[in-house]
Amino acid sequence: MQKDTETTRQVVPATDILEMDDGFHILMDLPGVGAEGLAIDLEENELTIRGTSTYAPVDKGNAMHVEFDAVSYARTFTLSDIVDRERIKATLRDGQLDLFLPKAEAAKPRRIEIRTA
Amino acid sequence: MVIDFNSLYDVPKNFERLFDEFARMQAGGARRTQYPLVNVYESDNGYVVDVIVPGVTPEDIELTLTESNLIIKGERKASSGRMFRQERSSGSFQRIINMNVPVDRDNVEARSVNGILRVSIPKAEAVKPRRIAIQS
Questions:
Q1: B6-78+90-127 has which fold?
Q2: B48: which DSSP letter?
Q3: Predicted ipTM?
Q4: pTM for the whole thing?
Q5: Where is the SHSP domain positioned along the sequence (chain B) (predicted)?
Q6: Nearest Cβ partner of B87 from A14, A54, A64?
Q7: Are B42 and B19 in contact (CB under 8 A)?
Q8: Quick one: fold of A12-56+65-104?
């Protein structure tokens, strides 16, 4: 069985999407991915997250039991107009990416003042 | 004194068999609890156990080494808020790795890098394969 050393297997990372009062949070599991291996691109409405894992299996000795391998992750999301593009924040910690997508000011529920004319 | 090598040869077989049983047992409950994936490598010097635990800080992981078992226990807290999509598992998890060979408990190292925890467990000196000099 030949192993292709150039490209690693691509996997869709497990993601939670939640909405809180200040905006949306996208939490992705990217084990083995550090800041250098992560790329987040926003093009028009599409947000693409790409990450490569730096996990290197131990090559000395034998693999007794292997359940995972070094993979690369890729996933694309389509953003709605509510999201304030300028203030998107990404935090990567312990292999978990927290993408904060704030809602634009105009979209937050607002009480409209009534003027008595 | 005679050194019995039989136990050393059997280790991979027993180890693998234990793992297969364990994996089969876990398969049914995998949906309910978090199932951190684990890789185990063996060399002459010791074992290396890699565990995938993204989003869990090292403080939340409990690593216990008994005489023959490595127990990895922890909990991943579920996120709060209005969930639109939930694909990641949360909750408490536990994996037990059985080692048939005595290990050197004082020299175990564990490092967590980017959500992958690597535990290096050296084998006890007495068990390491040793070169025997032939006298002529």
A1: Immunoglobulin-like (2.60.40)
A2: E
A3: 0.75
A4: 0.72
A5: 29-136
A6: A14
A7: no
A8: Immunoglobulin-like (2.60.40)
φ, ψ at A82 (rounded to 5°): -65, -25
Instruction: Find the distance separating the first CA and the last CA of chain B, reported in whole Å.
Output: 19
How close B136 comes to chain A (CA, Å)?
32
Distance from CA of A63 to the nearest CA of B (A): 4
Backbone angles phi, psi at A103, to 5 degrees: -85, 140
Q: What is the pLDDT of residues B62-110, one digit of tens each?
A: 999 887 788 999 888 888 888 888 888 888 889 998 887 888 888 899 9
Contact B100, B12 (CB under 8 A): no
* Closest residue to B39, CB basis, from A25, A34, A67: A67
Beta-carbon separation of B39 and A57 below 8 A? yes
B3 Cβ under 8 Å from any chain A Cβ: no
Q: Which of A94, A97, A99 to mutate to test the interface with B (most CBs of B within 10 A)?
A: A94
Q: Give the strand pairing for A72-78 and A10-11.
A: parallel
Q: Which of these, B70, B86, B66, lies nearest to B78 by C-alpha position?
A: B86
Beta-carbon separation of B79 and A18 below 8 A: yes
